Amino acid sequence: MDIEEILKNMTVEEKLSLIVGGGGLPKRVVGAAGETRAIDRLNIPSIVLADGPAGVRISPFRIGSSDTYYATAFPNEIVLASTWNLSIVEEVGRAIGEEARDYGIDVMLSPALNIHRIPLGGRNFEYFSEDPLLSGKIASAYVKGVQSVGVGATLKHFVANDQETNRMIINVVVSERALREIYLRAFEIAIEESKPWAIMGSYNKLNGKYAVQNEWLLTKVLREEWGFDGLVMTDWGAGDNPIEQVKAGIDLIMPGNDEILKKLIEAYKSGLLDEKVINERAKKVLELVSKSLTYKGHKPSNKPDLEGHAKIAYEAAVEGFVLLKNENALPIPKETRVALFGLGSYITVKGGLGSGNVHSRYTISIADGLKERGVKIDEELERAYTSHPYFEIFRNYTILLKRIYEESSKSSIEPHRFLPPIIERSATLAYAYFGAKAEIEIEDSLIEKVAKEDDIAIITISRISGEGFDRMPVKGDFYLTDGETELIRKVSNAFHKQGKKVVAILNIPSPIEIVSWRDLVDAILVIWLPGQEVGRAVADVLLGVVSPSGKLPITWPKELYETPAMRTYPGVPQYIVYEEDIYVGYRYYDTFSVEPAYEFGYGLSYTKFDYSDLSVMKENDKIKVNLKVKNVGQREGKEVVQVYVRAPRGKLNKPFQELKGFYKTKLLRPNEEENVKIEIPIKYLASFNGFSWVVEGGEYEIRVGASSRDIRLIGKVEVEEICFDKKWNKISC
Ligand code: BGC
Question: How far apart are the C-alpha atoms of 262 and 276, rounded to whole Å?
Answer without folding.
Answer: 19
